[in-house]
């Protein structure tokens, strides 16, 4: 199994969790603002709570992260490979519902061999967007997730940032490869100059593939055809298959020529008992958020 970067985060239990966690790897970058909300901050998805409570939790998250809650770019997450560019014109209040990105801002469209997938809201991954890039200081990228990984990518000197939504479908659809290549093209920069942070996500301790209909019905055949039975992220334990999403993401980052010293994993499982995060896998109703912004100076 691929060895992961050393964890950036201390062990945190739900009852002891601060409202937001940050990656120490980004704390020394003065031009970056970021954070991951915990259950202490509140549920950030309108599917799981009253709109007024969700809006209040989102505004609290923005305030604690230090960003302007009225200048936020939302995602329309559908496990696609699509990459979009956002700027000041795309910024809306954080308590508004996510929008579907316009073609005007689309940098990388879905490929002809992408897996077809529809999210719980009935939106096809041919019309969503699972990575946003911005070069505009003060415009925050905002994502709400359950167990998929938020992956933060920082171009050298804060010339641009990207926030990608990477789950098991997105891994097979190569959303992260598309993100890195697009980021390098628009800055421009080399992959070896990019800093990457893998946020909280379900770990191999809890991601049992036998319990995943998405794996069985959508992903398995394509994954094994491309990578073989010992592909990146596959863990066999007691004759059962588990998936190590952080390891699979790390493998992609290294194959795309990011330096191991520039890859940082939070290594916080969202589905473990007493998790400080909301989790689909663990049946903890709600969603947590990720914010990433270039600091306004």
Task: Kindly describe this structure.
The chain has 297 residues and is an alpha+beta fold. The protein has one domain: CNF1/YfiH-like putative cysteine hydrolases. It has 6 helices and 14 strands. It has helices spanning 24-27, 51-65, 168-172, 175-186, 213-227, 245-255, and strands spanning 20-21, 32-37, 72-74, 83-85, 106-108, 131-134, 140-145, 149-154, 161-166, 195-198, 234-237, 240-243, 263-265, 288-294. The strands form 3 sheets. Strands 5-4-6-9-8-10-13 form a 7-stranded mixed beta sheet. It has a 5-stranded mixed beta sheet with strand order 1-2-14-7-3, covered by helices on one side. A two-stranded antiparallel ribbon has the order 11-12. A hairpin with a 6-residue loop joins strand 8 (149-154) and strand 9 (161-166). Mean pLDDT is 88; it is low at 1-7.
Whole-Å distance between the termini? 43 Å
For this structure, the quaternary state is single chain
Supply the CATH architecture: 4-Layer Sandwich
Q: How would you sum up the major sheet? A: 7 strands, mixed
Please state the structural category.
alpha+beta
The average pLDDT value, as a whole number, equals 88
CATH topology (level 3) name: CNF1/YfiH-like putative cysteine hydrolases
The CATH homologous superfamily is termed: CNF1/YfiH-like putative cysteine hydrolases
What would you say about this model in short?
With 297 residues, the chain is an alpha+beta fold.
List keywords for this structure.
disordered N terminus; CNF1/YfiH-like putative cysteine hydrolases; alpha+beta; 14 strands; 5-stranded mixed beta sheet; 7-stranded mixed beta sheet
């Amino acid at each position: 199994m691929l060895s992961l970067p050393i964890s950036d985060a201390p062990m945190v239990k739900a009852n002891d969790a601060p409202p937001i966690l940050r990656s120490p790897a980004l704390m020394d970058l003065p031009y970056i603002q970021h954070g991951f909300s915990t259950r202490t901050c509140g549920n950030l998805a309108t599917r799981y709570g009253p709109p007024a409570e969700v809006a209040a939790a989102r505004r609290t998250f923005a305030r604690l992260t230090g960003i302007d809650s009225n200048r936020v770019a939302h995602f329309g997450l559908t496990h696609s490979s699509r990459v979009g560019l956002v700027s000041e014109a795309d910024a809306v209040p954080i308590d508004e519902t996510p929008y579907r990105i316009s073609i005007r801002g689309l940098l990388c469209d879905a490929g002809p061999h992408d897996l077809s997938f529809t999210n719980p809201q009935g939106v096809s991954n041919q019309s969503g967007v699972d990575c946003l890039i911005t070069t505009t200081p003060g415009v925050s990228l905002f994502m709400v997730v359950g167990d998929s990984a938020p992956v933060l990518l920082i171009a050298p000197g804060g010339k641009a940032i990207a926030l990608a939504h990477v789950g098991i479908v997105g891994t097979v659809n190569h959303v992260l490869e598309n993100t890195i290549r697009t980021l390098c093209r628009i800055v421009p920069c080399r992959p070896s100059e990019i800093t990457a942070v893998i946020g909280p996500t379900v770990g191999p301790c809890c991601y049992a593939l036998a319990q995943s209909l998405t794996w069985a019905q959508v992903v398995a055949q394509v994954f094994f055809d491309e990578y073989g039975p010992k592909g990146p992220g596959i863990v066999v334990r007691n004759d059962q298959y588990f998936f190590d999403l952080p390891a699979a993401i790390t493998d992609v980052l290294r194959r795309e020529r990011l330096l191991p010293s520039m890859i940082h994993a939070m290594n916080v499982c969202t589905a473990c008992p007493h998790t400080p995060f909301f989790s689909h896998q663990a049946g903890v109703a709600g969603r947590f958020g990720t914010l990433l912004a270039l600091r306004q100076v």
